Amino acid sequence: MAVYTEVDDTTLTEFLSNYDIGSVISFAGIAEGVENSNYLLRTTKAHFILTLYEKRVQADDLPFFVELMEHLAGKGMNCPLPVAAKDGSVLSEIMGRPCAIFTFLDGTSSRFPNRTKCRNLGTALAQLHINAEGISKTRPNALGPESWKSLLDSVGSRTNELGDDMLMQVEKRLAHITSNWPNDLPRGIIHADLFPNNVLFMGDDLTGLIDFYFACEDILAYDIGICLNSWCFEADGSFNMTKSRALINGYQSVRKLSDDEINNIPVLAAGSAMRFFLTRLYDWMNTPKDALVSPKDPMEYWSILRFHQSVSGPSAYGFYQ
Ligand SMILES: Nc1ncnc2c1ncn2[C@@H]1O[C@H](COP(=O)(O)OP(=O)(O)O)[C@@H](O)[C@H]1O
Ligand SMILES: N[C@@H](CCOP(=O)(O)O)C(=O)O
Questions:
Q1: From atom 18 of ligand 1, which residue's Cα is the shortest distance away?
Q2: Range of the domain at 50
Q3: Per-residue pLDDT at 69 exceeds 80
Q4: Which residues form the pocket of ligand 2, taking CB atoms under 6 Å from any ligand atom?
């Protein structure tokens, strides 16, 4: 379960005395998630989420994430709002970790979202891209293409534990992606981790976007690649073009893609698959066997990557049909 840092009752009570959010009814660690520790905090006033930042989140980036969530919520998007303490601050510290309290969003995530949810996700993604314009802070993508080679090198020959010649194969595919990477597509703030577990629904209605801790400035259409990979592949590894078309149509109902963006979808989706393959590979090799959180399978993203490098063009995703 994703609770890396336990919070004891005395520390919690002292911490909450800085907020005007009612008295605690219950406080429990949340099993989902892999990056941070999250607690569901129920008080006499409302439900909240207490997040303690762990692993990949840099404390210096927190003001950007907080501004982004406040900015998007201000534009009417359903994303968590940071809750200010009595002194007006939203970022704090507990058990030696940076932390913040957020509003709780209703809804549940789906492991295998249907076509309607895919369309609604596409619409929300485009709204996020447009609504994020104008925020004052920015953040480069710490996990962008220029970071991939050093991530792979940090695992090195242990990559071959995944299969014969795996290191060489990854290097070859990585070189192919980076040498074809587009550098003149529209850029903006992207979510960069909008997997189904980070999107909440009631029925098929999208009720919330969460987990903005990989958000950064990058190619907008790269975010579509991330979503195609995490929303449109079935449990058996097959690509579902009906879902892909729905996602893309939802996106384009808000923000039209240029031909240049569309033609680059295969390489952007392959790059996204490479990024998640590499972080999963790193975690696979570096997570202690007795850790509370199980690392995710890198090979799932290897097979997704191979799909994108085998397609003949954007029609494989439902474009121009
Ligand atoms: N604001 C929120 N409202 C409702 N549930 C939330 C909220 N933030 C987090 N959660 C719950 O906590 C889980 C883990 O959160 P997440 O941000 O994905 O963690 P991590 O950053 O560790 O991946 C989510 O799957 C969701 O169940
Ligand atoms: N989505 C990433 C891992 C990050 O997990 P999250 O719970 O923060 O979305 C992956 O699947 O590799």
A1: 33
A2: 9-103
A3: yes
A4: 33-35, 193, 195, 197-198, 211, 276, 279-280, 296
214 and 261 in a single domain? The answer is: yes
Mutate to test the pocket of ligand 1, among 41, 210, 292 (most ligand atoms within 8 A of CB): 210
Q: Answer yes or no: do 226 and 80 share one domain.
A: no
**Same domain for 126 and 264?**
yes
For the chain, how many residues are written?
321
Residue 32 CA to residue 2 CA, distance in Å, equals 6
Is 197 close to ligand 1, i.e. is its CB under 6 Å away? Answer: yes
- What integer pLDDT is reported at residue 294 of this predicted model? 81
Residue 66 is assigned to a structural domain of this protein: yes
Confidence band (pLDDT; 50, 70, 90) for 57?
confident
The domain boundary, picked from 58, 78, 103, lies at: 103
Total tally of structural domains belonging to the chain = 2
Count of helix runs (H) and strand runs (E) in the chain: 10, 9
Whether 3 is covered by a domain: the verdict is no
Element (H, E) at 41: strand 37-43
Could you give the 3-state DSSP secondary structure of residue 86? coil
Q: Give me the chain's average pLDDT, please.
A: 95
Atom of ligand 2 at shortest range from CA of 211? 8
- Distance in Å, CA 196 to ligand 2 centroid: 10
Residues 137-177: tens digit of each pLDDT: 999 999 999 999 999 999 999 999 999 999 999 999 999 99
Q: Tokens representing 174?
A: 């990585």
